Amino acid sequence: MDPRCTMELCRFLFVAVFLLLPGASSLKIKAYFNETADLPCPFTNSQNLSMSELVVFWQNQEASVLYELYLGKEKPDNVNRKYMGRTSFDRENWTLRLHNVQIKDQGSYQCFIHHKKPKGMILIYQMNSDLSVLANFSQPEIIEISNITENLYRNLTCSSIQGYPEPKKMSFWLKTENSTTVDDGVMHKSQDNVTELYNVSISLSVSLSAVTSNMTIICVLQTEPMKTELFSSPFYIDPKDPQLQPPDYTVWIATAIAPLAIGLLLITYLIRQKRKKKRQPGVSNECEILKMERGESEQTQKRVNIHVPKRSDEEFQCVVNSLEITSGDKSATHF
């Protein structure tokens, strides 16, 4: 390859940033994230020039070369490495295709066509293109972030992810049988440091005391620059839902009191049993003393004369008490 031609092209790449053909128009190009952008250079070729006579290339607003076709052959020497392997040239339509488009690819591009002559290169065509990159947001999704709060509110959040550019507005539509209310809350957004895509969300608290009829809630995202609206699936609130009724504290109170009542009964029973056991040894000792006294009396009487002993009233009462205590212990054990 002729070294002089390479030097001429390099000089032109520097100058082309500042010089544009009079009346040169600019095309508005839109492409979607991770897809392909078409950067046209609609040269009519009225002189029927061969590709072997032309030098064609595209560059961005920073003069970085995307693609170069030098005298009919691709020449990657001047191509910026961030575009290597990402372009293809349609010779029939004079269009450069930029693949795997990223957010950072948006901006201005220029295509240049030169006629290579023995005395040097002559610019015969130029076209400017402004590339905008879009990314479709996901369908908004409503999620209940918690159960009913103590203040009887239902807490909802709506989110949509992986979109570009930043959306214009996000809101809740609350529809009842007789009215529709729009709630424009604060839209929270975050942007990925690598892809530069946006995630957005909005929150809503619905007062259950205000829900007197069936309510349908829809989340709406308004995007730019297409000015389209994305709708979530509806979220329904039914005032007859058991969750919306005032809480019944009767069951809670009964559940709390029942263990206390059982505990008190058990303590009372144990105290009574303990008292019975304390009384039992005293009765037994009393009976033993009576028996010993009776034995001594009998021995005395035997010396005097022989007779059939009769139980005294005190001894009889002692036996009766002993039987009652024994019967009570058996009943307690059976219980």
Automatic annotation (TrEMBL):
Receptor involved in the costimulatory signal essential for T-lymphocyte proliferation and interleukin-2 production, by binding CD28 or CTLA-4. May play a critical role in the early events of T-cell activation and costimulation of naive T-cells, such as deciding between immunity and anergy that is made by T-cells within 24 hours after activation. Also involved in the regulation of B cells function, plays a role in regulating the level of IgG(1) produced. Upon CD40 engagement, activates NF-kappa-B signaling pathway via phospholipase C and protein kinase C activation. The chain crosses the membrane at residues 249-271. GO terms for molecular function: receptor ligand activity. Residues 22-115 form the Ig-like domain. SMART domains: IG, IGv. Pfam families: C2-set_2 (PF08205), V-set (PF07686). Homodimer. Interacts with MARCH8. Interacts (via cytoplasmic domain) with PHB1 and PHB2; the interactions increases after priming with CD40. Interacts with CD28. Residues 1-26 form the signal peptide. Coiled coil: none annotated. CDD domains: IgV_CD86. The keyword Membrane applies. This is T-lymphocyte activation antigen CD86. GO terms for cellular component: centriolar satellite; external side of plasma membrane; extracellular exosome. InterPro entries: CD80_C2-set, CD86_IgV, Ig-like_dom, Ig-like_dom_sf, Ig-like_fold, Ig_sub, Ig_V-set, T-cell_Activation_Regulation. The keyword rRNA-binding does not apply. Keywords: Adaptive immunity, Cell membrane, Disulfide bond, Glycoprotein, Immunity, Immunoglobulin domain, Membrane, Receptor, Signal, Transmembrane, Transmembrane helix, Ubl conjugation. GO terms for biological process: adaptive immune response; cell surface receptor signaling pathway; cellular response to lipopolysaccharide; negative regulation of T cell proliferation; positive regulation of T cell proliferation; T cell activation; T cell costimulation. Its main location: membrane. It is found in: Cell membrane. It is a single-pass type I membrane protein.
